[in-house]
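Contributing new records

If you add data, match the layout below exactly. Sequence lines come first and carry their own label; structure lines follow with theirs. Keep one chain per record. Anything else will be rejected by the validation script.
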Amino acid sequence: MDPFCTEDDLAVAETIRRFAAQEIAPRAEALDEGEHFAGEHRAALAAIGLMGLNLPERWGGAGATAVALYLAVEALAAACASTTSMLTAHYLATDAILIAGDDAQRARWLPEAAAGRTLGAFALTEPQAGSNPADMTMRAERSGDAYRLTGVKHFISNAAHADFIIVFALTDPTAGARGISAFVVDRRGEGVHIGAHEPTSGLRGGHVFEIAFEGCLVPAENRLGAEGSGFRTAMKVLDNGRVEIAATSTGIARAALDAALAWAKERRIDGAPIARFQGLQWMLADMATDLEAARLLGLRAASLRAQGVRFSREASMAKLYASEMAGRVTDKALQIHGGYGYSRHLPLERLVRDVRIMRIYEGSSEVQRNIIARALLA
């Protein structure tokens, strides 16, 4: 048993693994080929409790531990990273309400989201404010008992399909990061304009969009927390999200390693499987070791999250190592498959495309190194 996992955590993971293999994996290729939105799985995900797996039972969630959540995300990602991307973006939105909302706001939005009847999106990134959210320019100006939102958000997962969007905007543009506030915005509200989904290289079923807010009025009761508390909320949510990106990365890497192992045993040269070659055996050994190291970093961060202690450094370490590990492992898996791995008839090229974004979104590898270094030097 893994040192951070209980038998209950492992039981959750096994349930999700079986579900994902039977219900999600068979559609992964079609989602990618047709760029169909992974939200088609929402009802099935909700039925097994995944839409609210990050939430406590009080608010309609499954009450799972953070470790069980990590294992579940990993299992789902091994089947379909696009579906995992849709789901974890929903987690970012509901985490924001859980962390910064009051009980009335939690009761209003979370049970419906946990049941899969509504879908969330998390709008932090802007065209000129990606790795540093403090550079955002989007405004939220008070107008009586409402706020008028004006600006553009970019690369927002789920946006056109979401029912509610967590939006971060400047309520005090002179205060920098301390002037950012968070709001729950109705996606169908007047002044919310969403473009076509971006034609991305990977995660083609996890659609991302640009959103233009043109004088969108949001009731003051939809603000999460006090004015100026939005940046702190975003950073706490991203700590959670980075652990989930680590889990997604290890899930994709696990799928690549499993495919490479099966191929090495089946592919024959001169009548014998290629697994007999020591050079290939060493590649597989390195891949497996790399994967297990990343997994333990992720589980450690998840364990700290479960304990309710600060885990920003550990989340960044897990995200950094797992995302870069997954790039190495998927590339080696493709190499082991030779020319067949480069063909779209096998899933390796999709795994390589899907995993590439993990080193960029929710804080690039370079940003994670900055966070870790600051923690070390504090």
